Amino acid sequence: MKKSVVVVGYGGQGGWHANHALKSDVVTLKGIYDIKEERNQAARDAGIFVYDSFEAILADKDIDIVVCATPNDAHLDIVVRSLLSGKNVVCEKPVALSLEDFDAMCDAAKQAGKLFTVHQNRRWDVDFLAIKSIIESGAIGETINIESRVHGSRGIPSDWRCHKQYGGGMVLDWGVHLIDQMLQLIPEKITKVYCELNNITTDEVDDGMHLMLTFESGKRATVEVGTYNFIYMPRFYMQCKTGSTLIEDWQKKCKIAKMKAWNEKEVMPVQTAAGITKTMAPRDEITLDTYEIERPVSDVHDFYRNLVKAIDGVEAPIVKQAEVRRVLQVMLACFESHEKNQALIFPEGF
Q1: Which residue ranges does the chain devote to CATH 3.30.360.10?
Q2: In a 3-state reduction of DSSP, which class is residue 92?
Q3: Average pLDDT rounded to a whole number, residues 252-273
Q4: Is the pLDDT confidence value at 268 over 80?
Q5: What's the rounded Cα separation, in Å, for the pair 54 and 340?
Q6: What pLDDT band is residue 343 in, cutting at 50, 70 and 90?
Q7: CA-CA distance, 252 to 19, in Å (whole number)?
Q8: What number does CATH give the domain 3-119?
Q9: How many Å apart are CA 262 and CA 305, to the nearest integer?
Q10: What does the CA dihedral 42, 48, 49, 53 come to, rounded to 10 degrees?
C-alpha cells in the first residue's frame, strides 16, 4: 500500500517533490501547504489539495510522510513539530544552519519513533555515479585526488538564496550537494579543511566557494562552486594510481586514460614556446589506453522507494543522519576557515 505524502513549501523543490509523488509507484500525494497564497493557488490549479494551515497537517492522522521544502531557516520548527505529531519526515537540504538545530531534529525523531532523513538527491546524478563506479571497480587503481566543480555565469538567483537570514549562499545551496558526493566517494575521516569564499556579485552571502579537503590517508579533494564563470572547468577530474578520469559536464560521458606501462623506450620531446620538454610529452598508445564509459542508469524515484522500505523496517535509509551531520560539519568549517583565512586542522579527523 502506498504511503501518503504532504509537501510543506510549494516552491521549486516542493513542486519537484509533488510532481514526483504524483508519478510514484510507492507514495501518493495527499496535498501541499505554502505560506504564500499564490503558491497554494498554483497547486489548486494543478488539481492538488491544499491544506488551510500547517496545523491542519499536524492534526491529520492519515499522513505518513511530511516533506519540508521551505527556505533553510524555516526547517527546524516544521521538522520537529511534524515528527512529534507522528509523521515521518523528509527535509530538503541543507537540513539545518547549525549542529544544534540538526541534533534537535534527530532527538525529536528518536523521541517520536519516526524516520527522519534528508533529500540528498544528487546522489542519483549520473556524473557522480560514473565516478563512483570507477572507484568501486578499481579499474585505474586507488584514488589520489578528486576535483568536483559546478560553474555558472548568472550569479545567485534573486530569491531567498541571496539573503543570509534565510540560509542563502553557494556553500549551502550547491556546496551541500558536492560535499555530500565527495564524502561518498572518499569515505575517510577528514583531517584538514581550507576554504575561500567569493563575493563577486553580492556582499551579503557567498556567491562562490573553493574548498580543499585532506583525508586521513592523504587523499585530497577539491570542491568548487562558481556563479561568475563564463568558461566552465570540467565537472569532474580524478587522479588515481594507474590512470585519470575526466567528465567535462553532466551531459557527457566519462573519459578514462588507463596506464598500461610506466616506462617508454623512446620519449619524443615536444616543442613549447620556450623550448623542448620530455617531462610533459604526451604518452603513446603503447603505454596508455583511452576510452569512455556509458552514462550510468539512474532513477530518482529510488529515493522514495528506499524511504518507504526504511519506514517499514525493510531497508536502512540511503541518506543516513550521521552522513548528513558530517556534511553540515564541513559546511560550517568552510565558513570558519574563510573567516580565519587559514586551514583548519583536525588531528583526530572527523
Answers
A1: 126-297+329-345
A2: coil
A3: 84
A4: no
A5: 41
A6: very high
A7: 27
A8: 3.40.50.720
A9: 46
A10: -40
Q: Which three cell numbers stand for residue 214?
A: 585532506
Cell 519537484: give the residue. Answer: 16
pTM for the model stands at: 0.95
Q: pLDDT tens digit string along 110-163?
A: 999 999 999 999 999 999 999 999 999 999 999 999 999 999 999 987 788 888
Q: Where in the chain is the domain with CATH 3.40.50.720?
A: 3-119
Question: Can you tell me the distance from the alpha carbon of 175 to that of 149, in angstroms, rounded to the nearest whole number?
Answer: 10
Q: Are strands 254-259 and 243-247 parallel, antiparallel or unpaired?
A: antiparallel
pLDDT score of 286: 86
Q: For the packed helices 75-84 and 99-112, what is the interaxial angle rounded to 10 degrees?
A: 10
Residue by residue, DSSP assigns 206-233 as: -SEEEEEEEETTS-EEEEEEESS-SSPP
CA distance 225 to 209: 5
Burial of 57: CB neighbours in 10 Å, binned 0-12, 13-18, 19+: buried
- At the fourth CATH level, the homologous superfamily of domain 126-297+329-345 is Dihydrodipicolinate Reductase; domain 2 (3.30.360.10)
Backbone angles phi, psi at 238, to 5 degrees: -135, 130
